[in-house]
Amino acid sequence: MTQQQSIKKSNSSNLSSFAKLFLYGKKLVAGTSAISEGFYLVYRHQLYKDPNNPHNTRYVQHFCRRLCDVFNMDLQIHGEMPREPALWVSNHISWLDIAVLGSGARVFFLAKAEIEKWPIFGKLAKGGGTLFINRGSGDSVRIREQITDFLSKDIPVLFFPEATTTDGSKVKKVHGRILGAAIEANKPVQVCVICYVNKKGQLDTVVPFIGDATFVDHVQAVLEMPKVTAHLKTFPAIATEGHTVETLTKLVQDTMQQGLEDLQKEVLVQQ
User: Fold this and answer.
1) What is the mean pLDDT of each run of 10 residues along the chain (271 residues)?
2) Strand pairing partners for 87?
3) Rounded to whole angstroms, how far apart are CA atoms 251 and 162?
């Protein structure tokens, strides 16, 4: 079943109107509670005064775990979750990746500068230490400089080097220009991979945010989907000393692809 078919099936599920009303009401209450708790953490602990203090990542982690509960996802971690400052990279499947990665890893995320101006979510993201970067035509050098600055201050940063989402079956081409920030800051690259598995032990086809699905349709499908397990696996950090951007990019590509294949063999039901 394709991802588009999964969303259509979910949106035309067998849930009665009353059941859907109850489900959405329950999710609305849970989501509002999670967001309210997020703001409480920001202001109770005055995170806004020093939003990128690495110590604050524990509050980000708590908030992301609440989001996983809202979206009916269990998290299973494979391997150790390092605490050393590093440039984290992961495969990218869905907007849900943020909740999963933030639940497992103590990191800050990158976001477009425009998000900082969004009502409610912009303020929450800023208070939670999201690192806003200015994107524009030919601005990749500036972005790398910003990330280098973050890493030099021991701020752990995560980005998605595929620069797009996938169905989760494989890793697309890694764009390694930003990896140069780790080389310049003399910080390691921490590779991790995600695999979403449904109740049948197969790759979930609802979670991936790909194709022509609108964000609203996808959120609806996610809210109605059965419980999914998000598997998150880490690998030994890659020291950047002696690497060029090209050699580091190839190593990250190979590590991510092999790591995802190994994780899938471990968690998927073989057919």
Assistant:
1) 54 63 71 79 80 85 90 93 94 94 92 78 82 67 87 93 93 94 97 97 95 88 92 97 97 98 94 68
2) 157, 189
3) 14
Rama region for 148: left / alpha / beta (φ>0; ψ in -120 to 50; rest): alpha
DSSP, collapsed to helix, strand or coil, labels residue 194 as strand
For 49, phi then psi, to 5°, come to -75, -30
* Confidence (pLDDT) at 33: 82
Q: What is the pLDDT of residues 181-222, one digit of tens each?
A: 999 999 999 999 999 999 999 999 999 999 888 888 998 899
47-72 pLDDT per residue, tens: 878 888 888 888 889 889 999 999 99
**DSSP annotation of 113:** G
Helix (H, G, I), strand (E, B) or coil at 237: coil
Q: Give, as one character, the DSSP assignment of residue 238.
A: B
- What local confidence, expressed as pLDDT, does residue 141 receive? 79
* pTM, to two decimals: 0.86
| Distance from C-alpha of 157 to C-alpha of 179, rounded to nearest angstrom | 11
Cβ neighbours for 162, distance < 8 A, ≥ 6 positions apart: 91, 92, 171, 172, 173, 174, 175
Contact between residue 193 and residue 91 where contact means Cβ atoms under 8 Å apart = yes
| Residue extents of the structural domains in the chain | 3-266
What's the helix, strand, coil split of the chain in %, to 5? 50, 15, 35
| Overall fold of domain 3-266 | Glycerol-3-phosphate (1)-acyltransferase (3.40.1130)
List, in sequence order, every beta strand (DSSP E) within the chain: 73-78, 87-90, 108-112, 131-133, 157-159, 189-197, 228-234
